[in-house]
Amino acid sequence: RMGDGTQMKIVHISTEDISGGAGRATYRLHTGLRRLGLDSSMFVVNRRSKDVDVAAFDASMKWTDRIRRRLRRRRIARDFARYGASRPAGFEIFSDDRGEYGDDLVQHLPPCDIINLHWIARYVDYETFFSTVPKKIPVVWRIADMNPITGGCHYDEGCGKYLVGCGSCPQLGSGDPQDLSRQVWTRKEKIFGGVEPHRLHFVALNRWMASNLAQHPFLNRFPVTIIPNGLDTDMFVPRDRKAAREILGFPQDATIVLFVASNVHIRYKGFLPLTEALEGLKERCNLFLVSVGATADVNFKVSIPHTKLGSIKDDRLLALTYNAADLFVIPSLQDNSPNTVLESMACGIPVVGFETGGVPDMVRHGVTGLLAPCNDVAALRAAIEDLIQKPSKREEMGANSRRVALHEYSLAIQARRYSELYQSLR
């Protein structure tokens, strides 16, 4: 509550409400805060839920505003289009600091005492947002991926150029030191240089992102708090494996390895090293691979039995899928704090993955799962085989995973931490 006894109003700004990992993580936090009794609402571009506390941004339809938006949209598209021929395949989207809505967004902002930014690519225009948002309203920003700290990529895949100004961007296929990534980085440097440190507070999901912010040439001025994502541990809960397999039509006698990603074809998600790791086990183990996520038109050759479930939007069905698996593999070559790891752990399924990004914060080697050095396919294969061959070890790690999820990653814990942060900023 506020000093005058009124309820503090928190508005979460996010491109999506329940689509994609970042949108779902935002909606979960919003739900946790509502359960805690806080006045939480969401302000999004793409509203997919029926939640009355989620408002869709309704852009001004005045003809002058519509023309302005169209011009902004064309300028942003034109600047990116010049890299259409040079851009290599397999990369995720590239998003710069500009948005077509300009200051229209802030003008339509619901009344609030705290603004919490989340994944805001292609929605919030950095310059107009930070220059027009009322100075009395503190801004918290939960960093969902690397985009806020780079010159446009959402994961730099080890490039590291965001620390020295970007330019000659490998994800644009560019050799120009003054390319779009450099221009975006330079604009961000100027914009954040004009924001007073007490007005913006970053939330990192893990030690890796907190370290990225601490090393950053112009974002290291701002305070950072580490608060991991949370999830509903009553929804993602251990269930009978045999029954789950029966409902989903999976074989009862196979060892089921599960892979989940929003887009299977995005390179850093690591589906290729996973298939290479499993390839070396097919003679020794009765494997069955289940993949969840959009597959686009990419045809991965998988020589072991493989079922592609496509995207699953329903959490109940997703939880059932985890429960049908013997182990979950997160072969990401770089990642922040994937919801999938927490979902698997809450269902009591041990996790095998590469030691990268925020994954080691959740997957404690030898306790909740096993970690392999990043992109070491042989080590990943050995870790998967170790858990396949030792059912009792698998069960023990599954129980540990559930316990850690309950004690550290429940929605109630996450919501309480955010509530304390909000109070400290008022």
Protein topology:
Blueprint: E1 9-16, H1 20-35, E2 39-46, E3 54-56, H2 63-81, H3 104-107, E4 114-117, H4 126-132, E5 139-142, H5 180-193, E6 200-204, H6 207-215, E7 224-226, H7 241-248, E8 255-263, H8 271-279, E9 287-294, E10 306-310, H9 315-324, E11 327-330, H10 339-346, E12 351-354, H11 359-362, E13 369-372, H12 377-389, H13 391-408, H14 411-425
Helix pairs in contact: 1-14, 4-5, 7-9, 8-12, 10-13
What features would you highlight for this structure?
426 residues, alpha/beta, seven-stranded parallel sheet, six-stranded parallel sheet, 14 helices, globular
Query: Which spans have pLDDT < 50 for at least 5 consecutive residues?
Result: none
Residues in helix, %? 25-40%
Sequence of secondary-structure elements? EHEEHHEHEHEHEHEHEEHEHEHEHHH
How far from one another are the termini?
Answer: 10 Å
Return Rg in Å. 22 Å
Number of helices: 14
How do the strands of the widest beta sheet line up side by side? 3-2-1-4-5-6-7
Calculate the mean pLDDT score and round it: 93
Strand content: 15-25%
Largest β-sheet summary: 7 strands, parallel
Structure class: alpha/beta
Shape: globular
Number of strands: 13
Structure description:
This protein has 426 residues and is α/β, with parallel strands linked by helices. The protein is built from 14 helices and 13 strands. It has helices at residues 20-35, 63-81, 104-107, 126-132, 180-193, 207-215, 241-248, 271-279, 315-324, 339-346, 359-362, 377-389, 391-408, 411-425; strands at 9-16, 39-46, 54-56, 114-117, 139-142, 200-204, 224-226, 255-263, 287-294, 306-310, 327-330, 351-354, 369-372. The strands form two sheets. Strands 3-2-1-4-5-6-7 form a seven-stranded parallel β-sheet, sandwiched between helices. A six-stranded parallel β-sheet has the order 10-9-8-11-12-13, sandwiched between helices. Helix 11 (359-362) links the parallel strand 12 (351-354) and strand 13. Helix 8 (271-279) crosses helix 12 (377-389). The longest helix is centred in the N-terminal third of the chain and has 19 residues, at 63-81. The radius of gyration is 22 Å and the shape is globular. The relative contact order is 0.12. The mean pLDDT is 93.
